[in-house]
Design brief:
Blueprint (H helix, E strand, L loop, with lengths): L32 H6 L1 H5 L5 H11 L3 H16 L12 H12 L11 H14 L4 H4 L2 E8 L2 E8 H18 L7 H5 L7 H12 L9 H18 L7 E2 L4 E2 L1 H22 L9 H24 L17 E10 L4 E6 L6 E14 H8 L11 E4 L1 H12 L5
Helix pairs in contact: 6-11, 6-12, 8-10, 8-11, 8-12, 12-13, 13-14, 13-15
């Protein structure tokens, strides 16, 4: 093994000059004015060689027109490197589609009452587009109210899409389209009724937990629903059965839009991604549907004995004004609704108003989705406290898996 080499300090010789160790300074090239002017663009982009850069910068010190041109080019290059996020504006897709539709309206337009479902399924599909396997298997907790208590069900992002596929199938069957649970029935599963039962049957009979492959059938089914209602063009279609009750086609499409938005927020929360509420005009329709369903929910609470008014209800004939609660929804999607308290067929009356509740629009929807406890929902309350409590709990009771 050779011995270590002696250090240069041990030789007794003078140390080399540090300036001699670096790269030699570039020598400017001897170039004509026209050639140097043609290099200004490359110089502004830092694309010249060291010698060319030295020649251009030496020339700029004595040529005023070239110096001004070089300054303009450097400022232009600065505009090409704006420190902006690479994420696209979430509203870009909507603006592009709206611009296209303004120039050429669709041959068969989507009915106004189906537009919320069309918009919310498109927004959710855009959210899912770039998900990898890790995101599809991210845990999600579905939340709703059963009775007067909060409950939940653990699943994954893929399981949520399977849930939407199963329940949207109720509308598909009513419209004469294929049932996504047809294979479940063929496997001998007992008759499945209601959103929760269909979802549990789908999960139970799947060979494997749902994966990203569920996006394709859900996406195709949502497109088929929109195409079908657009071709028929009328909301007077068949009623959609939900097990214990049925909804008109118009309301069923709104219900599916509402649930699509709620579960899209569940998914976005699971993958830590921001998600905006629906457009105000669509959110207003969803709020209106929930407000119209409240009298039936109040009657159901009385029937089950969970209402303080169950022992001595103030029942009034259908079509007759009765005691009412004024529901005021604040925000751009807001409005006011008079909720009859005595029976589903009663008419809301300002003269018989006994209470007034004010809530934000998104807060009310989260209450109706079972994501906000009734005790924490109301921003403002005036009047009969018992009536207010019953309406808030009835709103939470609208939620389901």
């Amino acid at each position: 093994m050779p011995p270590p080499r002696a250090s240069v300090e041990d030789t007794g010789l003078p140390l080399p000059d540090l300036a001699d160790l670096g790269d030699p300074a570039p020598v400017p090239l001897d170039l004509s004015h026209d050639v140097l002017k043609s290099l200004l663009g490359a110089w502004a982009l830092a694309a010249c060689s060291a010698a060319e850069t030295a020649a251009v910068e030496d020339h700029l010190g004595g040529c005023g027109p070239c110096a001004e041109e070089a300054l303009r080019l450097r400022e232009a290059v600065g505009l090409l490197h704006q420190p902006e996020t690479l994420d696209l504006d979430p509203a870009l897709r909507t603006r592009v589609l709206q611009s296209c539709l303004d120039r050429r309206p669709p041959r068969i337009p989507v009915p106004e009452w189906a537009a919320p479902y069309d918009a919310e399924t498109a927004r959710l599909d855009a959210l899912l587009q770039d998900f990898g396997d890790a995101e599809w298997h991210a845990p999600v907790r579905l939340r709703w109210f059963r009775g007067d208590a909060a409950t939940s069900r653990r699943t994954t992002v893929a399981g949520v899409i399977a849930h939407l596929l199963s329940v949207d199938g109720l509308v598909a069957v009513a419209l004469g389209l294929d049932d996504p649970l047809a294979d479940v029935v063929e496997k001998g599963e007992e008759a499945v009724r209601g959103p929760g039962g269909r979802t549990e049957a789908f999960w139970r009979t799947s060979h494997f937990p749902p994966t990203r492959s569920v996006r394709g059938p859900w996406r195709e089914q949502s497109h088929s629903l929109v195409r079908t209602v657009s071709v028929t063009g009328t909301a007077d279609g068949p009623a959609v059965p939900y097990g214990d009750f049925a909804l008109p086609l118009r309301d069923a499409m709104l219900d599916r839009a509402f649930e699509c938005w709620v579960h899209a927020e569940d998914i976005a929360e699971a993958v830590d991604y921001p998600y905006e509420p629906p457009a105000p005009r669509h959110l207003n329709r969803m709020i209106d549907l929930a407000a119209r369903m409240l009298p039936v929910a109040l009657a159901e609470r009385r029937r089950q004995g969970r209402s303080a008014a169950a022992a001595a209800p103030h029942l009034v004939p259908a079509g007759t004004p009765g005691r009412s609660l004024r529901l005021e929804i604040e925000g751009t999607a807001g409005g006011e609704w008079l909720i009859p308290l005595d029976s589903p067929g009663a008419v809301g009356s300002a003269d018989l108003e006994v209470a007034h509740v004010a809530l934000d629009g998104v807060e009310f929807c989260k209450l109706a989705a079972g994501h906000v406890p009734p005790e924490e929902a109301a921003a403002g309350q005036v009047g009969d406290r018992e009536a207010i409590r019953e309406v808030l709990f009835a709103a939470a009771g609208l939620s389901r898996m």
